[in-house]
Design goal:
The protein has 358 residues and is an alpha+beta fold. Helix content is 19%, strand content 34%.
């Protein structure tokens, strides 16, 4: 851990915004309840569309969203038992992508042996996850651990995000605690200081000291009172490709990122709070309270962030070669992780110009 890291000027050519993903990780594709039996759901992971379906026994399966016959999108079909049935001619495929029935195949003839590509799929923390890379590596990769999930001492708030921006722009927004300025009308935080920075392979951990003084901070359990100035330590832990952030033992945020394509990103986040109210008061109301906090408060923060991220993407699209300047070393470290994990052909030489300390 680098104590007292210095802010320093770093010029970046925006080619970072062309970085691809490392597909050999689990990516979130939707909340569990969106995957009901009988109706396949199309999801997109880095431009690859995949039909996810829930069999009648509750198990999940994921196939490339293109029928083996003529390429029609399989999500347009239906589910029968443990098979997906193509909408066009009714060919049936099992969860491994094998063609197991063609309704008009003459007796004695065999279905083709070619398969539709199947993807490993899992369910955890109320989220469905896909592994778009080498299936042989899926079992050795873990979903992010979320120890607070299901713990009655925490109020869990689900936060969906959808941004017309490259995932690196979205990830930088999360690592960047210096943008409290954007949220000042929402009683956000102020006077952040980067106190520590730790970089290792595939991971960046930054600690910031932030200051709160507001009724909102008191309500969310972040400050002891609404009038006192209160300093807290926020730890932002990016372990590719997701975030696990926490503020001491007061709140936690698990931000799971889905790169949909080069200019589109989704996120499925779980926030955990200990409200500044007695447990007997809030526990029976946890569900409506959680929805209310999301709709009336957290969504307003996120909408402000979304405006900035999408503006950043739009100016990049207008002038992809423009040089931008960053002074937060945590952001620079994050970019290096992104580049190192990129399985596409972009080289680091193109991405990061030499740094000059100021
Ligand atoms: S295109 Fe799917 S069955 Fe013909
Ligand atoms: Fe923000």
């Amino acid at each position: 851990m680098d104590s007292n890291p210095k802010l320093a000027v770093s010029e970046t050519r925006n080619a970072i915004r062309h970085a691809g993903i490392n597909p050999n990780h689990w990516y979130p594709v939707g909340w569990s309840e969106a995957f009901r039996p009988a109706k396949p759901v199309p999801v997109t992971v880095w431009n690859q569309t995949i039909a996810v379906f829930r069999a009648s026994d509750g198990s999940l399966h994921a196939l490339e969203d293109a029928c083996l016959h003529k390429g029609v999108a399989l999500h347009k079909g239906t589910v029968a038992g443990d098979r997906i049935v193509c909408a066009y001619h009714g060919w049936e495929f099992d969860g491994l992508g094998r063609c197991v029935r063609i309704p008009y195949l003459p007796e004695g003839r065999k279905c083709p042996s070619a398969r539709v590509r199947a993807f490993p799929v899992r369910e955890g923390h109320g989220i469905v996850w896909l592994f778009p890379g080498d299936p042989a590596l899926a079992d050795g990769a873990d979903l992010p651990a979320v120890p607070e999930y299901g713990d009655p001492n925490w109020l869990m708030i689900r936060i969906p995000g959808h941004f017309r921006a490259h995932f690196s722009i979205c990830n930088e927004n999360t690592m960047d605690v210096f943008h409290g300025h954007l949220h000042k009308d929402l009683q956000g935080w102020f006077d952040p200081i980067l106190t520590k920075l730790d970089r290792e392979e595939g991971r960046v951990v930054a600690e910031y000291q932030v200051t709160y003084r507001s009724r909102l901070a008191k309500l969310l359990g972040l400050a002891k009172s609404s009038t006192e100035t209160c300093q807290r330590t926020v730890s932002i832990d990016y372990t590719y490709p997701h975030y696990r952030n926490h503020m001491e033992r007061i709140s936690a945020l698990y931000l799971m990122r889905l790169p949909v394509g080069p200019a589109e990103t989704r996120s499925f986040s779980l926030m955990f709070l200990k409200p500044g109210l007695p447990g007997w008061l809030w526990r029976p109301l946890r569900r409506p309270l959680s929805v209310l906090l999301w709709r009336l408060l957290l969504k307003r923060f996120l909408d402000q962030d979304k405006g900035m991220m999408e503006s950043e993407q739009a100016t990049f699209a207008d002038d992809p070669g423009a040089v931008r300047v960053e002074i937060n070393p945590a952001i620079v470290a994050l970019r290096r992780v992104t580049v190192a994990q990129d399985h596409c052909s972009v080289t680091t030489d193109n991405l990061l110009a030499p740094q000059a300390a100021s």
